[in-house]
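Session log. Operator J.P. requested a structure for one protein chain; no other inputs attached. Running the standard single-chain path with token output.
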Amino acid sequence: MRTADFDFDLPEELIAQHPLARRDASRLLVLDRASGQVQHRHFPDLFGFLRAGDVLVLNNSRVMPARLHGTNARTGGEFEILLLTENARNDWWCMLRPGKRARVGTQIVFGAARTGSAPIRGTVVELNDEGHRRLLFEGPEEIKDRLEEFGEVPLPPYIRRESLDQLEADRERYQTVYARSAGSVAAPTAGLHFTQDLLEQVRALGVHVCFVTLHVGLGTFAPVKAENLAEHKMHEEHFDVPAETARAVNEAKASRRRVIAVGTTSLRVLESVARIFKPAGPEDECSLSTCSEPADLEVGDTAGLETCATPRETGRIQPGPGRTNIFIYPPFKFNIVDVLLTNFHLPRSTLLMLVSAFAAPGEMRGRDLTLAAYQEAIAQRYRFFSYGDAMLVL
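Structure written below.
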């Protein structure tokens, strides 16, 4: 398929610039995959689509204040930096603007001018093919321990703020109420609609609420620049699946109960680990001719993920940490997830492609179903993107 197949026109005024006063006040578009029918509801109506025994899986990654401002130690010129990937302590790949002024050897000072505290110095030591810079930080402490002091909320570029004061409210609202493990540079936005009270009501229905962690990075939000989808290379993102979550998901699949992914990031974790499941016994052995040693494939083994692009029919997952670069687009067969709760995504994005694949698993018609639902959402004046409304795909 072509990237252009996932384009659509969106009126600029439908891009949500601010969250609603209440997290759970968003609208909810419900898409029935079998019939293609659309319902217009509100987020608390989600209860009517849940069943006792369902497993609801949320991504509990916490967004870091990953946008920094620094000055060139030699010229005083200003830089804007977005931390992307931690290689080691005080060693990060970053997006940096203006990039042309950040040659290898450039030293950048952070923190002192804004906070009056001891500065941190970063040195550009490497440049990759995508134009990202590798920064080594020096100072009295680890850079991650200073981010709350002088970092900013890394809002996406389509959300505009005029001043630092306006960003203060985003520190709380661009974060799920259940966020725990810091590491993301963008929010898992489908979860922004939940309140603690609403989650307790979900549990009271007999729904098992559990969590995975995927630290959102370039793999989630990088634009697709290739003309053909098969040529797009996803960036790796780190994840972790707790033992309790793996057990709940496996028991649900074994007893034909539904697994509901809250957000594309939760879905990508579940479908990734299903494709690199380490066989527990002869009944789980991989039948693929490409898998000469399936028992050696561990969760997070990138080579295993690439080799086993065709899923094994285990319908089971394993706990543990790992990395994924899974790219989901039509046609795609889903092993684990039965229902998807998500937001409305950007044109030509990998997230829109994933939703299109989920709308018709193993088929090509999901793109048409999804874009038709998006056109209905536009006609009904839904709010789009990170702070926008929600979509439930059944």
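Operator note: The longest strand covers residues 78-88.
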